Amino acid sequence: MNVAVPVSPAAVRGFDPILLGILQNLLVAIMDECELNLSRTAFSPFIYEGKDYCVGLLDAQGRTVVQSRGSVPSFMADLGVPIQDALDLYGPEGLHEGDVLIMNFADICGQHLNNVVIYTPVHWQEKLVGFVVTRAHWTDIGASGLSTTSTEIFQEGIQFRTLKVYKRGEIDPEIMRVIRHNVRFPELTLGDMGAQVSAVELGRRRFVALIEKYGWESIETSIHAMWDHSEKLARDRLRAMPDGVYAAEALLDDDGISNEAIPLKLKVIIAGDRMTVDFSEFPPQTKGPMNSGAAVGPNVAKLAFKAAIVPEGPPNDGVFRPVDVILPPGTILSAVDNAAMSLWTVSIKTIVDVILRALSQAVPDRIPAAHHGSMGVYTFNGVNRETGKPYRLGDIVLGGWGAQPDSDGFSPLKTVTHGDTRQIPLEIEENLYPVLIERHEFRPDSAGPGAFRGGLGLKKVYAIPEGGNLMVAFERSKCPPWGLFGGGEAQVGYVVVKKPGDETGVRYQKVSRVPLAPETRVELFSSGGGGRGHAYERAPERVVEDVRMGYVTVEGAAKDYGVIVDASSLEIDQDATAQRRATMRDTSKA
Questions:
Q1: Is there a single domain that holds both residue 428 and residue 541?
Q2: Helix (H/G/I), strand (E/B), else coil: 548
Q3: I want to staple 75 with a disulfide (CB 3.0 to 4.6 A). Which of 54, 70, 230, 522 is the partner?
Q4: Are residues 423 and 453 in the same domain?
Q5: Which one of 514, 533, 552 terminates a domain?
Q6: pLDDT of the residue at 421
Q7: Using CA atoms, how far apart are residues 159 and 506, in angstroms rounded to an integer?
Q8: Which helix (H) or strand (E) holds 201?
Q9: How far apart are CA 60 and CA 92, in angstroms?
Q10: Residue 277 maps to a domain
């Protein structure tokens, strides 16, 4: 539960609004510069191309002040949790200028171990005034790494529980040896860690220079004013919403080990100027790695709240103050006892969508239909014959987002928890790894039909000349991205592996290891987004335009939208269309 945060005496003495605007933008600019430095100096394409990271400034208690504008949303809202662990272990007096700490301990962070936090304290006149923090996805973390079948966290990699990599500016060679000899790609890993260290040190210097220029009292006052302004905006939005209890549910396919679907049921409670997300009915933690730790529950609730209720303005501690979470221990979102968490991020996409589904009952004019939400993580690994060295290519798919209240869904994008992260460019993949990308194109008819259709999914085809191994984790095959208010669901995502001479192939959703013979082809199909409103209400001319653009087939136009189109001339058969749509309308009312 959130509690009132005491305001420092400096923050109640008033502030200069012009100075506030200057400082707020300067703080964001500092984080943006740190982000650019991280991206520029990282060794792994996951980071320098995919942008799978966050950079943030937190206060001395671990409360979010600002973040860089390219930060991954699901990395930011719980960054105070590892900071609090450091404060509990060392106390403020045990954190010194020049210290740099590393953290990925699952029992605290609640994410898979590849997501590694690097941070440094910021001091002003020997007083701890904040932290500059990064979290980035490391290509490898040892053990089995990303797996669909792990059953405990120890199978997934090495854990760092709040360790000082640098002590008063001096690197700890023993910790560096531990890291180097527990990962498969030490050059990439240590290079990425160095980029994170460089980013937080840059942020520390810039923040100290800002304090020197404007004074700590002005900075502190402005931070509290930023929080208070964001909090007021959030509470005003909640007060404008109808009070009530809004329930929603969906399914996850399975936990990677059994074939049993996992039901997700939750409630969103709007009461005055507060919103509570109640996960009391969530399923127990799974044997397989679809779990998250307790820090992630508030994180996904805040992410959904920010996206739906206060999308404008910066994410900071103030905007999240009206959000409460009810989350008992031992659920898929609050796993305990060293539960496996390799696929934590695969499950939270659907959880965010379910929160939004509940909110659609309260504010239908703000909420889109469900997005592709699968994440569709995949990795190829083997030995590159040209270099003789092992390689690992990893990425996630782009797909369609759900239809907006007043427009078609976006496509193609990553998931709602990924923000502005990108897919690694095809040219980079072919240059770095022994793969060829033969096709990367839209999937016709993959979008959920509606008066406003969803965004489209993609088809991406890899040829693997040298062979290797494949890991994939695609979700939502049993619970396709749903539509809202009469809109249709989207086609689901999956993977097909075709050995040489096999034109049918074998379909997969989740699998830890598929051996690939030389010249195997791997076809990735991502999902579209759900539609909004009845498809028979979409203007026939817009359907024909979608056919002309290749988004919808002639058959799909007839089946999904009731628009009968001549395949050669793309002319509409008005009589047949009227008859087909009348039937669809009658069926929907039955």
A1: no
A2: helix
A3: 54
A4: yes
A5: 533
A6: 85
A7: 36
A8: helix 186-214
A9: 8
A10: no
Strands (E), 156-305: 163-167, 170-171, 244-252, 262-271, 274-278
Q: How many structural domains does the chain have? A: 3
Cα–Cα distance for residue pair 494/260, rounded to 1 Å: 18
Position 490 scores a pLDDT of 98
Residue 205 lies in a domain: yes
Residue-wise pLDDT tens digits, 333-373: 999 999 999 999 999 999 999 999 999 999 999 999 999 99
Output the average pLDDT for the chain.
Answer: 95
Give the Cα-Cα-Cα angle 246, 251, 257 (nearest 5 degrees).
145
Model confidence pLDDT, tens digit, residues 230-282: 999 999 999 999 999 999 999 999 999 999 999 999 999 999 999 999 999 99
Among 480, 543, 470, 476, CA closest to 512: 470
pLDDT digits (tens, 9 = 90+) for 435-480: 999 999 999 999 999 999 999 999 999 999 999 999 999 999 999 9
CA distance linking residue 472 with residue 510, whole number of Å: 5
- Does residue 388 sit within a domain? yes
How many Cα neighbours within 13 Å face the side chain of 442?
21
Q: pTM of this prediction? A: 0.95
Shortest CA distance to 542 belongs to which of 404, 411, 450? 450
Single-letter residue type at 316:
N
pLDDT attached to residue 289:
98
Shared domain check, 562 and 472: no
Q: Examine the domain organization and report whether 562 and 520 are in the same domain.
A: no
| Residue whose C-alpha is closest to residue 377's, from 493, 253, 519 | 493
Domain membership of residue 375 as a residue range: 368-533
Q: Which of 195, 187, 172, 186 is nearest to 98 (CA)?
A: 172
In this structure, the answer to whether residues 519 and 544 fall within a common structural domain is no
